[in-house]
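User: I've been trying to design a sequence by hand for this structure and keep getting stuck. Would you show me what you'd pick, starting by listing the structure so we're on the same page?

Assistant: Good idea, let's start from the same input. This is the structure you sent:
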């Protein structure tokens, strides 16, 4: 199983530079227009002032005809030419009217020019007012866009911070995953060693020797009898998990083994626990732990109850076993036979037990690895028989196939439910 994980992606919102630049350019254009308008107004005012001064000079000089009688430059006489030259020193009026032209104008012409200039000044003033209003409007829009841009920059910085935090968390998860991956490999090697050692210790019975009466060692503990001879069906069956499992748990996996389904035990456990957690909020199972019982397999629909009976004087445990055998006639795999006990003299109720009823009528205590036979019926109060639903197991096999486990780990000692010959691969 690979320890690599994909880093989470976070979309970064870039600031809107183009909107701000566009507003700034528009504002600068209006400001340039204002400056040009001010210059034009200044020129008009200078021209108007020059025209008014020439107009006043002409009025004081008397009349148009007398101007020619008085030589230019005579002492004590101020001519329009002198005034024009003094005003022209600034250079602001030369662009519109020449001095010589001003001198040749009549009072009426100057009056008309002044009136026209006043109209132009008023028009320029109106244009300036309009441009100022436009400039104020553009400035407001520019400030609004600047505020929006600042907000986007703040969001951008927040997203960058979140993205960095996600990268840090992802790195931590990758490190933890690598540690778990290494731990899984180490555990797999330990399980393989345990399995090989366990296989070497097993005595493999030959033929009918397993049924020899002289090898039987019977005990009458808790109202049942278990023979010490290992059933041949269990010779190759083993659950290599380093944790205790329930009797019902063992029987279910034994039935799957006898049905020939190739499942990865650890993946199967995890999938069943996830299904229980999703279906029942109160389940709260720790995924991956050996905490499954027969009732939990029943909840996810993997097994189905065939019948249930109370053990009485009229219906004894032997009757229940015979009925179970009759119901599974024709099928190749066993059924699970659950036993509940009565309360003892001390008021305590012993923990129930689960065994496997074979199609030939033999009963196997899978947890203990022995045959099981009823002895004292007085303590057994209730039994029920469940059968594994083949159609459901096929669906589970799609999710928990041994090939998936083999593809994800090079050492797969946990996958001992894979084949009937006991090999892990």
């Amino acid at each position: 199983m690979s320890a690599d994980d994909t880093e989470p992606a976070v979309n970064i919102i870039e600031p809107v530079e183009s909107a701000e630049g566009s507003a700034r350019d528009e504002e600068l254009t209006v400001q340039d227009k204002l400056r040009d308008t001010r210059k034009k107004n200044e020129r008009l005012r200078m021209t108007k002032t020059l025209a008014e001064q020439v107009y006043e000079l002409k009025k004081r000089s008397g009349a148009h005809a007398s101007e020619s009688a008085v030589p230019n430059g005579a002492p004590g006489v101020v001519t329009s030419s002198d005034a024009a030259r003094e005003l022209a020193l600034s250079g602001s009026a030369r662009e519109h009217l020449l001095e010589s032209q001003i001198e040749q104008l009549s009072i009426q012409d100057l009056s008309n020019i002044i009136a026209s200039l006043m109209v132009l000044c008023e028009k320029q003033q109106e244009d300036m007012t309009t441009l100022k209003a436009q400039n104020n409007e553009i400035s407001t829009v520019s400030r609004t866009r600047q505020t929006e841009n600042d907000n986007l920059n703040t969001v951008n910085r927040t997203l960058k911070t979140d993205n960095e935090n996600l990268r840090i968390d992802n790195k931590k998860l990758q490190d933890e995953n690598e540690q778990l991956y290494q731990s899984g490999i180490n555990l797999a090697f330990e399980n393989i060693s345990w399995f090989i050692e366990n296989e070497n210790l097993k005595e493999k019975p030959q033929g009918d020797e397993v049924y020899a009466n002289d090898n039987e060692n019977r005990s009458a503990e808790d109202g049942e009898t278990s023979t010490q001879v290992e059933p041949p069906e269990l010779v190759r069956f083993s659950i290599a998990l380093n944790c205790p499992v329930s009797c019902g748990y063992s029987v279910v996996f034994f039935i799957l083994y006898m049905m020939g389904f190739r499942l990865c035990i650890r993946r199967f456990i995890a999938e069943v626990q996830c299904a229980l957690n999703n279906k029942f909020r109160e389940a709260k199972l720790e995924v991956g732990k050996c905490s499954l019982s027969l009732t939990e397999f029943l909840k996810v629909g993997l097994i189905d109850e065939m019948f249930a009976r109370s053990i009485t004087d009229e219906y004894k445990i032997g009757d229940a076993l015979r009925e179970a055998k009759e119901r599974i006639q024709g099928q190749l795999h066993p059924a699970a036979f659950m036993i509940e006990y009565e309360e003892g003299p001390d008021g305590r109720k012993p923990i129930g037990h689960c065994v496997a009823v074979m199609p030939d009528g033999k009963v196997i205590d899978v947890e203990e690895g022995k045959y099981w036979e009823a002895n004292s019926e007085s303590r057994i109060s209730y039994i029920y028989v469940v059968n594994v639903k083949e159609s459901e197991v096929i669906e589970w096999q799609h999710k928990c196939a041994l090939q998936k486990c083999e593809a994800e780990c090079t050492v797969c000692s946990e996958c001992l439910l894979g084949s009937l010959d006991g090999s892990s691969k």
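That's my pick for every position. To get oriented when you compare it with your attempt: The beta strands are 224-227, 303-310, 335-341, 353-357, 363-365, 370-374, 380-388. The CA atoms of residues 33 and 352 lie 98 Å apart.
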